[in-house]
Design a protein that fits this description.
The protein is an alpha/beta fold. It has helices spanning about 10-20, 55-60, 60-65, 80-85, 90-110, 140-160, 185-195, 215-225, 240-255, 275-285, 290-305, and strands spanning about 1-5, 25-30, 45-50, 70-75, 110-120, 165-170, 170, 200, 205-210, 210, 230-235, 240, 260. Helices cover about 40% and strands about 20% of the residues. The protein starts with a strand and ends with a helix. The structure holds nicotinamide-adenine-dinucleotide (NAD).
Length: about 300
């Protein structure tokens, strides 16, 4: 199989690329390198530097993929609630129009699309979150992901496009992004390594479903190969509070972490956890790495990068 990965130089995309190569597949990455890192890409990858919101850029994939058995993993996006709020026009352009461009490419190649959707499509509803609940996004980010899913569903109805939308919960692991929008896992581990005081927005009782990036990459590979279609949650089914996360990171790092508390951020859901029965039944996928083990791997990786 030839796997085309949009956003393949990013955090999650680069893990999918590595897994596909390890399984013996050919890989093409299209990435504008806005947040991605070229250094992550293996020499065997064919890289197209381009923007998925520009139809001309994405159609360059045709030159290398025509005539092959192709699947498309679509991860290129303006990622995150805060980023999309700050750059709404760009978020719609990349996440919505970019997805329509990917659909157009998939039609020409007769390829299946696996979209990186998000738990943000559910908004602030009571967990466990199930795929048959109505989507009620409370952020522009969640709305653009829902619209991307709907474009795929419409193309499936109109042209028989095959697709899977993976609703990713909170993904963490090696190569997580630093910077102003870094995730809570990154910030806590970074605080542990540098001896900083971790900041908690809200009272620390907000919950999330943290899923390890290696497990997420396996879900993409399973979806690309399967005949299943529709939306699937990718999480663990477990709710972990921010305070429990801090405790686990204290244990893994061997450092006592004393947080400072700040006001909650707008657009953050109070509780979140997936019901993962649908993906287990349809794709045979289940998460394999426990939170403690995944945090240990992430901590070791970040500590090695931070130098002696
Ligand atoms: P990331 O920023 O590390 O990866 C995104 C990649 O896409 C980067 O390499 C970036 O350079 C590239 N990109 C951005 N805009 C582009 C464009 N217009 N054209 C081409 N390439 C472009 O983020 P990530 O955490 O790896 O997220 C990957 C996907 O998973 C995104 O679609 C995101 O919405 C989704 N997702 C992530 C999480 C999470 O917890 N990280 C949760 C839910 C959904």
């Amino acid at each position: 199989m030839l796997l085309v990965v949009t956003g393949g130089a990013g955090f999650i995309g680069s893990h999918i690329v590595d897994m596909a190569l390890a399984e013996g597949h050919d890989v093409v990455v299209i990435d504008d390198l806005s947040t991605g890192d070229l250094a992550r890409l293996d020499r065997r990858v064919k890289l197209i530097v381009g923007d998925v919101s520009r139809a001309g850029d994405i159609m360059r994939v045709l030159e290398v993929a025509r005539g092959k058995e192709v699947a498309l993993a679509h991860l290129a996006a303006v990622v995150g609630v805060q980023e999309a709020r700050e750059r709404p026009q760009r978020a719609v352009e990349v996440n919505v129009l970019g997805t329509q461009n990917v659909i157009e490419l998939a039609r020409r190649l007769d390829a299946k699309v696996v979209l990186a959707s998000s738990a943000a499509v559910y908004g602030d509803q009571e967990p466990p979150l199930r795929e048959d609940m109505p989507a009620k996004p409370v952020s522009l980010y969640g709305l653009t992901k829902l619209q991307a899913e709907q474009l795929l569903a419409m193309a499936s109805q109109d042209y028989g496009l095959k697709y899977v939308a993976l609703r990713l919960f909170n993904v963490y692991g090696e190569r997580m992004k630093p910077g102003p929008y870094a995730s809570v896992v990154y910030n806590f581990i970074n605080a542990a390594i540098r001896g900083l005081r971790p900041r908690i927005f809200g009272d620390g009782r907000a919950t999330r479903d943290y899923v390890y990036v290696g497990d997420v990459a396996e879900a993409f590979m399973a979806a690309a190969k399967s005949k299943a279609s529709g939306a699937f949650n990718v999480g663990t089914g477990r709710e972990t509070s921010v305070l429990e996360l801090l405790e686990l990171i204290s244990r893994v790092s061997g450092r006592r972490l004393e947080p400072s508390f700040e006001p909650p951020r707008p657009g953050d859901a109070r509780r979140s956890a997936a019901d993962v029965s649908r993906i287990r039944e349809a794709l045979g996928w289940r998460p394999r790495v426990s939170l403690e083990e995944g945090l240990r791997r992430t901590y070791e990786y970040m500590r090695a990068l931070s130098g002696p």
